[in-house]
Write a structure and sequence with these properties.
The protein is of the alpha+beta class and 100 residues long. The chain has three helices and four strands; from the N terminus they run βαβαββα.
Length: 100
């Protein structure tokens, strides 16, 4: 079965947040597990104007404002905290199976 596209957004502060840095490090660590083109990810930096705007958009899309830090997968809040590598990897694999 072919892998499908998964978009992961880490709602975080780029500077001065140890948990935010941990979320990014975990995603960087597991990213190579996925076929090229399957996983697209970015940091929604709430310390920037663009990040604040995207955070607001995510709040409307998800029907509630994502915590900082949190992980949004394909427009749904997957984690309001920082998951371990296995949990995040499993969530991305599940999203790849159900994505259209």
């Amino acid at each position: 079965m072919a892998s499908r596209h998964v978009k992961v957004e880490i709602v975080a502060k780029q500077k001065g947040c140890l948990l935010c840095d941990l979320a990014v490090a975990i995603l960087e660590e597991i990213a190579p597990e996925f076929d090229e083109g399957t996983l697209q990810w970015e940091v929604v930096d709430i310390g920037s104007k663009e990040g604040i705007l995207r955070h607001t958009e995510l709040g409307a899309m998800c029907k509630r404002t994502p915590a900082v830090p949190s992980i949004v997968i394909n427009g749904h809040i997957a984690f309001d905290n920082i998951p371990d590598m296995e949990s995040l990897s499993d969530a991305i694999r599940e999203a790849a199976r159900i994505s259209k």
